[in-house]
Amino acid sequence: MKQQSAKIGVREYVSIAVLMVGTKATEDTPANLYSHVQNAAWMIPLLSAGFFFIPLYLLIKTMSLYEGKDLFSVIKKILGKYLGFMVCLVIFIINSFAVSFDTRTYTNIIRSFYFTTTPTLIIYAILMFICAYGAKKGLQHIGSVSYLIVFYAVVSLYVALWLGTKHANINSMFPLWGSGAFVLVKEGAQKVTIFADFFLLTMVLPYLKSNKAFKKGTWFSYIYICIQISMSILIFVCMFDESLGGTAYPFHTLIRYISLGQYIPNVEIIFFIIWIMAAFIRFTAFLYINALMFGNLFKIKDFEYLIPSLATIYLMLGFIPEAPINVSLQFKPIIWSTVGPMFAGISILLWLVALIRGEFKHAKNKNTM
Amino acid sequence: MKKKIPKLLMKSLNTEPEFNEESNIEDIEIKKQDISTDIEKNLETFKKIFTVPDNADVKLREFTIQQLNRKAFLLYISTMADLNNIMAGIEGPLIDSEHPGSKIKDIVSYPIEKTSTNIGDITEFIAAGVTALFVDGDPDCYLFETTKIRGRSIEKSENEVIVKGAKEAFNEKVIDNIALIRKKIKNENLIVKTQTISKRSRNTVFLVYQKDLVNEELLQNVKERLKSFDTDSTIDLSILEQYLEERPRSLFPTIVYTERPDRAAAFIEEGHIILLMENSPSCLILPATFWAMFHSPEDHYLRVPYGNFIRILRFLALFVAVFTSPIYLAITNFHVGMIPPDLLMAIAGTRERVPFPSIIEVLMMELAFELIREAGLRVPSPIGPTIGIVGALILGQAAVQANIISPIVIIVIALSGLSSFIIIDISMNFAIRITRFLFIFTAGFMGIYGVTALFIGGLFYLVSLKSFGTSYFAPMTPHSFSSKDLLIRHIPIKERFRPGYLKPRDMVKQRKG
């Protein structure tokens, strides 16, 4: 039977983006931010969004020169065969590590909060298995599933946060600038990693119905997510105050803390269900993008077949750190402080090279002709 | 390459024996010929084809036509034809008529359907209940449409019961079924197209659609699909359904099977294609989405708030049917902290004397419920309700008193079992019941995490299902233009468009006016 072309619409794209990036507020990001800038942590996402806006804008502008090409093709085209390949390879490797450690982080969360006696390997393997299965189904289906659950995910997050405000104290916001405006700006620039996923999402551009849909979807989800993350962190700050620095996973502490009235004291499982669904989608999309990158790098057409093996490799890679603490303190900071600035650098570099080579003028001439 | 090796291996291990058909070239050759003008020869040929006189209900009547003074014979199958009409309209005038005439059509009063010369064609017609008249010296054979098939009349729908709206259902006579649809759509663009799908028993399928609505590509697709299988006999629509489906092994159905003509007509009006078959008291609607199986015609007959109320109720029932027992298992085994202390004490108290782990308990009771349900269906109707009561009430009560099952499990099973009845579509119903067992196993194995993992995996699977190129959750995702009749329906005036995933020739079904 003839299959429909596997293009996704703007709804599906936005859902993937929201689930991919929006879940960041529910892992160890807030604690990480708090340890650097104290109670001004909620401003970091806003600042970083501001900082990352320029490279992302330039990147999308550069990409629009090459209609229907993904990020790697554009990099190769602009930077040349060899340099381009090297850059792409570095992106792929860094991203692979990011996926491994992120999945490990999520496994740690599941294990430490909900399944304390289950072996890590089993939790991890189930996570990777489902993600690999989903990723193998292709982007269109990932988009469809995320569209089906994104509404519930977002609503449940807000319900959890709203219930959290009952235990929050707005005074914890002050002093407004935390440990100082200068530190804030510096950290904001470094933590653009929060939005680095948007850099990766340009990989799926050829699978969208149109360039315009991509732009619209990207900017919409970009603005929405920066508000959502910032708001969640603000509520975490108001709730936990000083202790946020020592609370590894504030979202999960929060949902253990809240209750639905007097009678149902523990509702964490309800939120856990939806959170884990979002996490599945997040890593499915990641896995798919990584496979896409790998396929593009080594010119493998049917890259879907790579997904199970990639998932296995990530599983083994993520299994190397022995304790959860190692992941949070040794491996992730390296990725945290390098990925964002590097991706921003690459975006600006691409734009500069394109500008110097006169690609923009070229395109303009083509349009006027 | 990867897939080829195991396939080759399987092939070499699993050889299918070669069956040689007994040759009937002689018969086939005869059927290709034309009839002769010599009546004796024709008589002999058809006697041989229909095995007269061994074949009891094939009637052959020889006589002489008075006016023409020629020998003739009538051939028909008495169980398929209307004997009164044959006697009064054909046989009577031929044997004994006052009106002189030289042509057959002037003599008989029954309208001649057509004439034919090919032996094979004539044989096929006779097998379908047509009466054939052979006249000595005449190169043509006269065929009379005398078919009269016995069957039950149009009755109330029994499996898809609704309170408000039309009650009639399809029956086994396809003519009645088509009439039921035509009655609802009085339009010359409503096409009933026949297509023969099997070789030996020559089952025909009737494709019913609106010519000026249906997407041409879809129509071609369906026709080709119907042509593609080479089988001797497909006796029922439900078997055809399995031939047609893209994934016949899948748990979830991709074609709607309904016995309600109003539902069929509604789908035709949207640009779907309906398949009907002789002997099947139902129709197939394709392409179908999850929503088509989830909705009931009554949702639209009731006023908007009531219709939406039962929709939401049904959606809830879907989740209750699938998830009550798994969640009970998961919470009591893995996430005890979630239950309020008082309730926890109550549950623990009832489970105190039960010797089994709760998964065994739940599985036993689920199995018992399925048994009672299946038995209730098969029991002769006068004692059916009694068996149900004995099974459900007494079995449950006794099981609790014997400390085999805790009372809370009875509540859980009864709730999920009852909820599963709300899903009208029979295939969807089965799908829900079977997935429940899968979820029970994952809940017993990994608690809520396992249930959620399976749920997401299942969603990925469902989303990738296709019915004749239409995604399972269309038009919700992938999004296409429609009148948004998904979970909630709008007032009829607002439902202005046909579903976009069908790509109908006319999208707008209601203009602003």
UniProtKB/TrEMBL annotation, chain A:
It is a multi-pass membrane protein. Pfam families: Spore_permease. It is found in: Membrane. Keywords: Germination, Membrane, Transmembrane, Transmembrane helix, Transport. GO terms for biological process: spore germination. Its main location: membrane. The chain crosses the membrane at residues 40-60, 81-101, 113-133, 145-164, 192-208, 220-240, 269-291, 303-321, 333-356. GO terms for cellular component: membrane. InterPro entries: Spore_GerAB. Belongs to the amino acid-polyamine-organocation (APC) superfamily. Spore germination protein (SGP) (TC 2.A.3.9) family. This is Spore germination protein (Amino acid permease). It comes from Neobacillus niacini.
UniProtKB/TrEMBL annotation, chain B:
One of its GO terms (cellular component) is plasma membrane. The keyword Transmembrane helix applies. It is a multi-pass membrane protein. It comes from the Bacteria. It is found in: Cell membrane; Membrane. The chain crosses the membrane at residues 312-334, 379-398, 404-426, 438-463. Its main location: membrane. Keywords: Membrane, Transmembrane, Transmembrane helix. Belongs to the GerABKA family. PANTHER family: LEUCINE ZIPPER PROTEIN 4 (PTHR22550:SF5), SPORE GERMINATION PROTEIN (PTHR22550). This is Spore germination protein KA. It comes from Neobacillus niacini. The lineage of its organism: Bacteria, Bacillati, Bacillota, Bacilli, Bacillales.
